[in-house]
Amino acid sequence: MMKFSEKVSDFVDRISLRVALQCTVVTFGVCGMVLAGAFVFTGHTVLENGQGGYDYPGNPIAQEMPVAEVFSIDTDTNFDSYVESENELSYFSYRIKQGDMIGRLANQFNITEDTIISVNNIHSSRTIQIGDYLKIPSKSGILYTVKTDNETIDSIAEKYEVDAAECASVNHVAHNVAFEKGTTVFVPDAVLDAVTKQEINGDLLKKPIHGSWYKSSSFGWRSNPFTGKRTYHNGLDMACAQGTTVYSAFPGKVVEVGFNSVYGNYIIITNGTGYKALYGHMKSKSPCRRGQVVNQSTVIGYVGSTGMSTGPHLHFTLYKNGKLVNPAAYWN
Q: Nearest Cα to 135, choosing from 177, 201, 90?
């Protein structure tokens, strides 16, 4: 007859064996789930492209034109292997690194500087920074936004003096298709106009005061020096010594010379491409006459304090296509 202590020992041994078997099953089950999950996960391609705005390593892709295939590319990859056909337009994204310049990138990818500037809507070459992404197309050209309804490939090609057949092929449209205003068209081999390139490179405007000065009042909202109220200042105040020489900020034509109670002695100059500048508070009437052609070396007046002014300074207002803009964003 089995002793009580032996029965207890036998019971404990059977329980331990059962627990061990259960733990083994659970362990294999968990391992199986992990392995299955690993197989499922590795069965999908992990995209290096940034998606949804998150900061993944690699290049985020944005398709800008329905006719263009967009893909990412490593800078060490042979670019030519990605161009499938002479008339197919493709884009890839490139992340700017230290030492990159638009001219160097254009040479590297065998396209024009105008192409990179236009496709990426660059308004100032000084604003691109390390880490920014650029879209690089497979061929040279610019993006054109249709200005009026019923423009066609033929009319656009004629405007830019490029091949209409290639333009139609790249955009996958017929020659006589009428575009709606606002439609974007890629124009192969087209170039930007000279004024646009000057603006982008910061060469369009030169500071009207070539000597030393300081900004006594910025463009935009400020506390009015006469009323103390918050008002919108439509120009930039450049404070300096009385009698300092004032030059034209860009080549153009004088359209008005005069005096009023606000700007005192002033002169207005336009360049005929949408830019117009007002120079105010000058010491005396400008030596220039209406209709005179000027350049950036032309003396148009001298700093004073005429009109509504608290002291010697030049008030400089800049218009672009009839709209006020900040002059500091346009000069070099």
A: 90
